[in-house]
Write a structure and sequence with these properties.
mainly beta; single chain; six-stranded mixed β-sheet; 11% helix; 507 residues
Length: 507
């Protein structure tokens, strides 16, 4: 494996004049498949087919395990499952194929006819076909996104802020080149969870650039995450694309974007779906200029599409003139037109919803947890609870904190799913014994909001109900059994019964 410099790394596969590849594949929560759209519905364990024109539901397949992303692999639809050690392989029937993971996220087709899935919590990639597992590749750093262009494979290691690329077999053998997306001390590429491969062969990415520890002399009144200082936010969405890296403006106008959750490109149009601000940015982006890594150059935003809550995936028509967006939290699909200009309200329709894994109050809390639009949560549209706790988990970073209400400290982000009654008290020093109070304090001290009119109990309910990462079955059952005995004999279980916590503070 080689760590490349920014100038040497070429993320766009076709670049200047290179012929488009014969094969490309990327992963999303929504897929245009002939005369229907397929949309994953993890809240009620279903895969739903939608008519692209009317946006009406036409078919529904039950898939237990929180179906997450999908891709076309030959004649099959392959669907990852966040809360199961399996993937769904769908042709004439639904076949569940076991994989050595506690859950999976991205999936792409390989030219060989098999599928490649990412297992973020297990730090591995798994190649699989309808018969079973073909191979397993360790991938350190939480692999979350995949894309294939020609014979090149791209993988993001979100926890490390790097993109690995190279010939498919080379990457699956543990090799390839790595681009470290942010090299400036104190800054990180967080939530590097989005890759897209266009028919022309371009591979593009999106992430959040975060200033988590660049200035320990930061005065208390400038220490929050949600402020804009001298025109610069502490947290900013960025893209890796030939048209530039910056596309948001935190000036109170129409180009306030946060939390890129999906990306797609066709011809000279780049679509960036933003989950925290509930919108899509349409960016002019020509592949003819190529790309050599991150840049602070600003892209030209042609239109902003206002959506419902929690958009998380996108599919494009073959010519790139139409986009369909999975508006996940609203359980809806929206249709967008590439000729839109200015601020546009797209056509959208809700789909059916079965029994949900989260309660009604927790679903409301999830909306708030991911909301950068409510000025009582954050006034400038920059930050949400999910910025540091993606998916209700953690970003793997240590943040320097210093605000009027928080003394100088460096604190590793804890998982938000740890804020449940069985883990009381919260924070390493036992500072909080109520998740709603913890949420309100975080909003006021770190997100720059005032917390007024915010249903804090709903945020607490979401953190209490969101599922933690699912453990996988052990690769070596005998070794795991020996480890459990060592854990018991060494006294670890005295404080961590069952691998959890006793809820007490210890010196």
């Amino acid at each position: 494996m080689r760590l490349t410099t920014v100038s040497a790394f070429l993320l766009v596969a076709c670049g200047s004049g290179t012929p488009a590849p014969e094969f490309s594949s990327s992963s999303s929560t929504i897929l245009l498949d002939g005369d229907r759209l397929w949309v994953t519905s993890p809240d009620d364990d279903a895969l739903v087919a939608i008519d692209p024109e009317s946006l009406e539901e036409i078919e529904r397949i039950d898939l237990a395990g929180a179906p997450t992303q999908l891709a076309r692999v030959g004649d099959a639809l392959v669907v990852t499952l966040e809360l199961a050690g399996e993937i769904a392989w769908i042709e004439s029937d639904v076949r569940r194929v076991s994989i050595p993971c506690g859950g999976s996220r991205a999936v792409v087709a390989l030219p060989s006819g098999s599928a490649l899935v990412s297992c973020p919590s297990d730090d591995r990639l798994v190649e699989v076909n309808a018969s079973g597992v073909v191979g397993v590749t360790p991938m350190n750093g939480r692999p979350t996104a995949l894309a294939v262009s020609g014979d090149e494979l791209y993988v993001t290691a979100s926890l490390r802020g790097v993109v690995r690329s190279g010939a498919i077999e080379e990457v699956l053998d543990g090799g390839g080149d790595e681009l470290r997306v942010e090299d400036e001390p104190g800054f990180a590429a967080s939530q590097l969870d989005v890759l897209g491969a266009s028919p022309e062969g371009d591979v593009v990415a999106a992430y959040q650039r975060v200033d988590h520890d660049s200035d320990r002399d930061r005065p208390a009144d400038r220490g929050g995450y949600g402020s804009v200082v001298d025109g610069e936010p502490r947290i900013e969405p960025r893209i890796l694309a030939p048209c530039g890296g910056r596309y948001a403006r935190f000036d109170g106008g129409a180009e306030v974007f946060s939390g890129p959750s999906a990306i797609a490109m066709a011809r000279d149009r780049l679509w960036v779906v933003n989950q925290y601000t509930d919108d899509v940015a349409l960016v002019r982006c020509s592949s003819s200029s190529g790309l050599s890594g991150p840049t602070s150059r600003r892209a030209e935003v042609l239109a902003t599409f206002r959506l419902g809550r929690g958009p998380r995936g996108i599919a494009l028509s073959e010519d790139g003139s139409t986009a369909w967006v999975d508006v996940g939290f609203d359980h809806a699909v929206a249709r967008l037109d590439a000729e839109g200009r200015g601020v546009v309200d797209p056509i959208a329709r809700r789909r059916s919803l079965g029994d949900t894994r989260l309660s009604a109050i927790a679903l409301r809390g999830r909306n708030l947890f991911h909301d950068a639009d409510d000025i009582h949560l954050t006034p400038s549209g920059i930050v949400t609870c999910a910025t540091c706790h993606p998916g209700g988990g953690e970003d793997g970073l240590s943040w320097f904190l210093h605000t009027p209400g928080v003394a100088r400290k460096l604190r590793r982000t804890p998982p938000a799913w740890g804020a449940r009654a069985s883990f009381l008290p919260f924070h390493w020093d036992g500072e909080f014994d109520d998740a709603a109070v913890l949420s309100g304090t975080t909003i006021r001290e770190l997100m720059e909001g005032d917390g007024l009119l915010i249903e804090l109990d709903a945020i607490a309910a979401y953190m209490a109900e969101v599922a933690p990462p699912m453990p996988r079955l052990p690769d070596d059952a005998a070794q795991a059994e020996r480890g459990a005995q060592v854990f018991q004999d060494a006294g670890c279980a005295d404080c961590h019964a069952g691998g959890g916590s006793d809820g007490l503070a210890h010196r």
